[in-house]
Specification:
With 353 residues, the chain is α/β, with parallel strands linked by helices. The protein binds flavin-adenine dinucleotide.
């Protein structure tokens, strides 16, 4: 049994920053995530995309934001159960909770924080019979590292922003990029559609509209795909390829969390945003993309703010009656960053003098 003060379900940016805010209050955290790595959507869906609305970072790659968060929380030595999905939540007589994962790992804590984002998200897969046989052998539903596609022949399918953005991006890296969409019109941003059409005219992207990938061929790895054209007279096209990336979006599912007796609205958890982001279950909080309330913005900075507020209330539940005065980090320093605490104190003293 893993025991901790605050058990965080979801190691996305919100869950990670919770470790920092809890650490300032000397509360220990343990994180569970279904994915094998930390960072949530930032690591899994768009690690190489720049984010422009993180305060004080005019531009930062999503993957770099996760690295910075990991650096920031290092002094607080959180525990991690990665690659396991939280399945059940059981209240104990003493008011604490036990959370058990799909692999049977048990965790106990007086406070549970659900920072599960979109939930255990699953990519929408095209209905191609043998697609599973080629997963991680040429077929991927997300681009994690564009370098994987250097000098490769890549087919991307989809009509939204992801398909357009990656087709544009990979045309400088891959040997050949083919973009396949089942309609003539794309759903993505107008400038991306224009850019992709321009590259197609220049012959740098092969563009097939009103077509779908219907068959995959290969042995140990993918060797070829077959496109079926929706115009009957065009028949099928056989393409030799190394990679096939269907980008049809993610279907967000709260997964097992939906069965924990929480108040759910539009696939998100209702919380008391006027106070502490607690759910209808005492001691269970929900922060970040996973929660809902009037005026909610599903942004990274919302999750950071909610984490800071929620930790103050978690402290009161764990330490009933104990007075806590919030200190700025410039005054209190951060235990574990060498010298920070001393320096911060010296600075304050100097200012007072
Ligand atoms: C393409 C794209 C671009 C974006 N650009 C921006 C931007 O520019 N600025 C911005 O502010 N936001 C942006 N966002 C949104 C931003 O990524 C989210 O707001 C943010 O990731 C939410 O963080 P989170 O920690 O709440 O959830 P998530 O990042 O979704 O992390 C939740 C984690 O919980 C885990 N999890 C869920 N259920 C379970 C379970 N039962 N057991 C174990 N683990 C579980 C998941 O595996 C996941 O790792 C963008 C999103 C996308 C997809």
């Amino acid at each position: 049994m893993i025991k901790t003060d605050i058990l965080i379900i979801g190691a996305g940016p919100t869950g990670l920053f919770t470790v920092f805010e809890a650490g300032l209050l000397k509360l220990k955290c343990h994180l569970i995530d279904a994915l094998p790595q930390t960072g949530g959507q930032c690591s899994e869906i768009y690690p190489k995309k720049p984010i422009y609305d993180i305060p004080a970072f005019p531009e930062i790659l999503a993957g770099d934001l996760v690295l910075k968060l990991m650096e920031q929380i290092k002094p607080f030595e959180a525990g991690y159960t990665l690659g396991e999905r939280a399945e059940t939540l059981d209240k104990q007589e003493d008011g604490s909770y036990i959370v058990t994962t799909n692999k049977g790992t048990k965790h106990q804590a007086p406070i549970v924080v659900i920072a599960g984002g979109l939930g255990s998200f699953e990519p929408r897969k095209p209905p191609i019979e043998n697609i599973k046989d080629f997963e991680d052998k040429g077929v991927a539903y997300m681009v994690k590292d564009p370098e994987v596609y250097r000098d490769k022949k890549v087919v991307i399918a989809g009509g939204g922003d992801s398909a357009l953005d990656w087709a544009i991006y990979l045309n400088n890296i891959a040997e050949e990029v083919t973009l396949v969409h089942r309609r003539n019109e794309f759903r993505g941003a107008l400038d991306s559609v224009e850019k992709a059409s321009e590259l197609a005219k220049l012959g740098r992207i092969k563009l097939f509209t009103k077509a779908e990938v219907v068959k995959l061929y290969g042995g140990d790895k993918l060797d070829a795909v077959v496109l079926k054209h929706n115009d009957a007279d065009k028949g099928e096209t056989y393409l030799e390829v190394d990679n096939f990336i269907p980008l049809f979006g993610l279907s967000p599912k709260l997964g097992p969390i939906a069965d924990w007796g929480l108040e759910i609205e539009k696939n998100a958890i209702k919380v008391n945003n006027a106070k502490d982001y607690q759910t209808n279950l005492p001691g269970v909080f929900a922060i970040g993309d996973v929660n809902t309330y009037e005026g909610k913005l599903k942004l990274i900075l919302s999750g950071f703010h909610e984490a800071a507020v929620m930790c103050q209330y978690a402290y009161q539940i764990i330490n009933p009656g104990k007075r806590y005065v919030m200190k700025y980090t410039t005054v209190g320093g951060v235990e574990g960053f060498d010298g920070t605490k001393k320096e911060a104190k010296k600075e304050v003293v100097q200012r007072i003098i």
